[in-house]
Design brief:
The complex is a heterodimer of chains A (640) and B (105). Chain A has 640 residues and is mainly alpha-helical. By secondary structure, chain B is mostly helical. Chain B is built from three helices and no strands. Classes of the chains: A mainly alpha (640), B mainly alpha (105).
Chain lengths: 640, 105
């Protein structure tokens, strides 16, 4: 039997689990929900592996390229002959790759959560939402058309909202969930507008048609312009705005650090490995359109990615909350991926950026999920998020320590570990496209190594702190995912990604560019050494540095006051000068008209209600008077 | 039958009866009197039926029979109405319509 025909199950199993756990989870012991959710994801994981195996190794290349396969398609809404919204499953190299990423990380997070969330109120609710998220994310990557993607895109946003606000008694969690939802929704407005423009030009939502040469020609020559840009450029920029919102690119990044209010496994799954790379996936999915309609769009995207990666890495060096450091690190790494897409060319060797972006997405998902899960294990042990309240944990948490160290080495780009390979490809792609971006990214690589090892040394080395109780190693359900992901983080780099994923679906061979790799190794080692010198033992050098940097450090620590600027713009300017007049107009003009109509009706009926006396004789009088009156009129007309 | 009495005489009588009935129905407050007024209206109509039948279609009997039906129905109606009036009297100890206003408000 063809494994592709089972692919809709990948979507159906999580949604069934969501409904089952969500509706009936309360009737069983909490752990049943956890096991059920994990089992469901386990099946999805196995199916994903089988599909990937079938796609890459059994079917493999046809005419030298990996042919996209529509494994299932159900027509849902038909507007015109071509403009159809359907629900389906599209298998091509990037969607199959994402399938692996999502099902792996989601399965690990499910298993981990059984241990991490043990005894929490709302255990089954948590697992129901995790299943909902897995369903939406898988639907997003398997979408056959951009509208299906948009629907799942919003579903992902909802599940992210629900999970960030999981501790709904905590005001900060509620605020964070609202912030995440509003910021991403605002970005999705652009996405929707972009979809509408694109589908208006092309008359279709279908990815394969949109990205085919003919579809690109239609998009390119639509002839519509607005404010000096062609409709195609507008559409693609607006679509990227949606992607930037989800992937937390500057200046829409403000929601991601706050999203760390959610439970740590959620941060690992949603805000590190899968959902936040949806924007990268979106750009990759539409890549031919970006590339052939207007190269300047891609340039802008590259600079946004590059700036975000630098910006976030600088902030990460100053933070104390371990989850926030990881969040800024995520921002920085996603910046890398976006940048790689932006500097990429199309086809074969020129598509190195595209391939490296997907490669980095893959490796990043593994090691960042591992970092977050490790951070979760630390928080689980010491009941604190703040780095300064930790120290010397390597004795208490050997497994966590080892896996966390592997993750730190990986993200720092030490040769032999996965991120080294993917980051090297990105740097190579950037080097051939734009030297400025290359040096920015090289510097960011050093910063990354520095802030990750700063975190590592402070938490695991240094002095013992006063803990509420002796920190204990995480239970087996938590350490198994850590070990699995640690192995994946190391080995993922040895996949020859160019053989599977490329901009034109045609495999190509890429090799490590040692002249570039050596620079990144040197920069990374410098970062690690500085972190080692500053944070290996507790000393007062970092404090002196903070004092010396003074205002600059304060600005960076407050994330360049971007949140404050947002608040100023929304509360002081938009609320006062736009929202209030609109509210006045609504209350006094729109509501006033409606109230006036209601008042007139009421007044009139009050006045005439006396006629409804219930006195039959009065009715009879009126009736007879009327009859006589009519009779007189008739007489006048016919005989008068 | 003597045909010397002209048609208009009958019609004048029936018109007077009819409007007396209407008048009584509207202004009287006593239920029995209202019932009597209704009977007056019915009988004014009966008179018209009979007279028109006699003068316009001599030899036909439809108008006559119609009058008979109305008389029978009026009797039935009167019995029902009087039954209601008796009930009202038992309930309210009055048959003045103004006082029977429990359903109002």
């Amino acid at each position: 039997m063809n494994i592709y025909s089972l692919s809709p199950l990948v979507l159906l199993i999580p949604v069934i689990m969501f409904l089952f756990i969500g509706l009936l989870g309360m009737r069983f012991k909490p752990v049943v929900s956890g096991i059920l959710g994990s089992l469901g994801l386990g099946i999805v994981f196995i199916l994903s592996l089988l599909i990937a195996y079938q796609y890459f190794f059994i079917d493999g290349l046809t005419d030298g390229i990996y042919q996209p396969i529509i494994a299932a398609n159900y027509q849902w809404l038909q507007f015109t002959d071509t403009l159809i919204i359907s629900m389906g499953v599209l298998l091509d190299p990037i969607s199959v790759m994402m399938l692996i990423v999502i099902s792996t990380v989601s399965l690990m997070v499910h298993i981990y959560s059984i241990g991490y969330m043990h005894g929490e109120k709302g255990f089954e609710r948590f697992f129901a939402f995790l299943s909902l998220f897995s369903f939406s994310m898988l639907g997003l990557v398997l979408a056959t058309n951009i509208f299906q993607m948009y629907i799942f895109w919003e579903l992902v946003g909802v599940s992210s909202f629900l999970l960030i606000g999981f501790y709904y008694q905590k005001p900060s969690a509620v605020a964070a969930s609202k912030k995440a939802f509003i910021v991403t929704r605002f970005a999705d407005l652009g996405f929707l507008a972009g979809i509408l423009i694109l589908s208006y030009i092309n008359g279709t939502f279908d990815f394969l048609t949109l990205t085919s040469p003919e579809g690109i020609e239609i998009t390119k020559h639509s002839g519509l312009t607005f404010l000096g840009f062609s409709a195609a450029t507008w559409a693609m920029m607006l679509i990227f705005m949606g992607g930037a919102g989800k992937s937390a690119m500057f200046p829409l990044h403000i929601w991601l650090p706050d999203a760390m209010e959610g439970p740590t496994p959620v941060s690992a799954l949603i805000h590190a490995a899968t959902m936040v790379v949806a924007g990268v996936y979106l750009v990759a999915r539409m890549f031919p359109v970006y590339y052939f309609t207007n190269p300047n769009t891609l340039n802008a995207i590259a600079y946004i990615g590059g700036f975000t990666s630098l910006f976030a890495a600088v902030i990460a060096c100053t933070q104390y909350d371990i989850k926030r450091i990881l969040a800024f690190s995520t921002l920085s790494q996603i910046g890398y991926m976006i940048l790689a897409l932006g500097v990429s060319g199309y086809g074969g060797e020129h598509g190195l950026g595209y391939m490296s972006s997907m490669f980095h997405l893959f490796t990043h998902a593994m090691f960042k999920a591992l970092l977050f899960l490790g951070a979760g294990a630390i928080i689980h042990a010491v009941h604190s998020n703040v780095m300064n309240e930790m120290g010397g944990l390597r004795k208490y948490l050997p497994v966590t320590h080892l896996t966390f160290l592997i993750a730190c080495i990986t993200i720092a780009g030490v040769p032999g570990f996965s991120a080294f390979f993917s980051k090297d490809e990105i740097l190579t792609a950037a080097f051939h496209h734009d030297k400025i971006l290359f040096y920015v990214e090289l510097f960011v690589a050093g910063l990354t190594a520095f802030y990750m090892f700063r975190l590592y040394f402070v938490v695991f080395w240094g002095e013992d702190r006063h803990y509420h109780h002796k920190p204990h190693e995480a239970p087996l359900t938590m350490s198994i995912p850590l070990i699995f992901l640690a192995i994946a983080s190391v080995l993922a780099g040895y996949i020859h990604f160019g053989n599977f994923v490329s901009s034109d679906r045609m495999p190509f061979h890429s090799e490590i560019q040692w002249n570039i790799a050596s620079q990144s190794i040197i920069v990374g080692v410098i970062g690690i050494v500085i972190a080692f010198l500053l944070y290996r033992k507790v000393n007062n050098v970092p404090d002196h540095l903070v004092k010396a940097l003074g205002g600059f450090h304060k600005t960076v620590f407050h994330k360049f006051y971007i949140d404050e600027i947002y608040l100023f713009v929304t509360k002081k300017i938009i609320f006062n000068y736009i929202s209030r007049p609109v509210a006045w107009f609504d209350r006094h003009i729109v509501d006033g008209t409606m109230n006036g109509i209601a008042w007139i009706t009421e007044y009139t009926s009050y006045r005439i209600k006396g006629f409804q006396s219930g006195q039959l004789q009065q009715y009879a009088l009126v009736f007879v008077s009327g009859a006589v009156f009519l009779a007189l009129i008739f007489l006048y007309y016919f005989f008068g | 039958m003597n045909t010397l009495v002209p048609l208009s005489f009958f019609l004048i009588v029936s018109t007077i009866m009819f409007f007396v009935g209407i008048w009584g129905f509207i202004i009287r407050r006593n239920l029995i009197t209202i019932l009597m007024s209704v009977e007056l209206i019915l009988n004014a109509v009966n008179l018209n039926f009979v007279v028109f039948n006699r003068i316009l279609f001599p030899g036909h009997f439809q108008g006559m029979f119609f009058s008979l039906f109305i008389v029978a129905i009026a009797a039935a109606e009167a019995s029902v109405a009087i039954a209601i009036i008796i009930n009202i009297y038992r309930r309210f100890s009055t048959i003045e319509v103004d006082n029977v206003s429990e359903m109002k408000n």
